[in-house]
Amino acid sequence: MSAEPVRVLVTGAAGQIAYSLLFGIAKGDVFGKDQPITLILLDITPMLPVLGGVVMELQDCALPLLREVIPTDKEEVAFKDLDAAILVGSMPRREGMERKDLLKANVAIFKSQGAALEKYAKKTVKVLVVGNPANTNCLIAAKSAPSIPKENFSCLTRLDHNRARSQVAMRCGVPATQVKNVIIWGNHSSTQYPDVHHCKVNMAGSDLACFDAVKDDDWLKGAFISTVQQRGAAVIAARKLSSAMSAAKAICDHMRDIWSGTPEGEFVSMGVYSSSNSYGVAEDLIYSFPVHIKDKQWKIVDGLAINEFSRGKMDATAAELVEERDTAVTFLSA
Fold first, then answer.
1. Fewer CB within 10 A of the end CB, N or C, for the chain?
2. Contact, 71 vs 59, CB < 8 A?
3. Are 262 and 293 within 8 A, CB to CB?
4. pLDDT tens digits, one per residue of 20-71
5. Residue 183 per-residue DSSP state
């Protein structure tokens, strides 16, 4: 066993996504089957009694890799010497709330957590932002931690990626593992663009282009896209709660790929810094791209052909992100 436990923070740790997530991390699904873990759980003070119950349950799982669980409401405890930070907690949108007000509340949270990363965490920390609006929250955290490399920050679009993969798989009647290289471009919002122009489906032992496997261009350019874009809302409408199980699985996938890398010839989607990308996306955004990961470093997959249909959708989601960023940055200096 690696002697040193990795120090992993989960924020919003008393919430429902964390409740689905913590077991997966603690049993070794993310950082490796022989990697001991110290879990640090941060939430707001009123949630500490609930967090105490979560700690009891983690203890009661009697997991071999879980060395220590530290519940806290203090940033200086939570962010100390971190190897990984999974920032799930954010201000949820309340009924009748303006998007601007939501952004303002979240800028305050992620500015503070970025500053805490800067002050207390290891400079090698890998930061995954899940709390919405995830792309912009991630950008604010990164800007608030200037001495941590921008490449160490990413936001979650893996849930959208998994949703797209699964939709194609169900349509083709194959397991989701036989669908690879779907792409989510842009914002983790309803403007995201699920792109299957570079996707391959393994049918009867050979890889087919997605359009050839599905044989329904209208569906792929219409209902497929809107289904993936609106899936979160559909789950809330049905469950009266947001998608926690699938979000937790996507978080595990995202972090595991950062830690262990992506398979040769496959790429995954994550929101990363747009600087010097080859797809004409504006600088200084956290935008979801297809990436390869090796040695804990991601690299945007270059040279994918982009047709006019894709271009329009990629630009639309970029425009939303630019507007979000510009609004958020005004709050940052306040």
1. C
2. no
3. yes
4. 999 999 999 999 999 999 999 999 999 999 999 999 999 999 999 999 999 9
5. E
| 106 assigned binding-site residue | yes
**In Å, what is the CA distance from 119 to each residue of 79, 82, 144, 269?**
8, 11, 10, 29
Question: What is the identity of the amino acid at 166?
Answer: S
Alpha helices in 9-152 (DSSP H): 16-26, 48-60, 75-78, 99-120, 134-143
Query: Are 107 and 328 in contact, with CB atoms under 8 Å apart?
Result: yes
**Domains, the chain:** 6-155 (3.40.50.720), 157-324 (3.90.110.10)
Q: Any known ligand binding at 131?
A: yes
Cα-Cα-Cα-Cα dihedral of 49, 36, 129, 151, to 10°?
150
pLDDT in tens, 159-213: 999 999 999 999 999 999 999 999 999 999 999 999 999 999 999 999 999 999 9
Q: Is the peptide bond between 175 and the residue preceding it cis, with omega within 30 degrees of 0?
A: no
pTM of the model: 0.97
Answer yes or no: 188 catalytic: yes
Tens digits of residue pLDDT in 247-256: 999 999 999 9
Of 19, 15, 84, the closest CA to residue 46 belongs to 15
Report how far residue 19's alpha carbon sits from residue 28's, in angstroms, rounded to the nearest whole number. 16
Q: Which of 183, 171, 225, 181 is nearest to 207 (CA)?
A: 181
Do 191 and 320 touch, CB atoms closer than 8 A? yes
Residue 163 annotated as lining a ligand binding site: yes
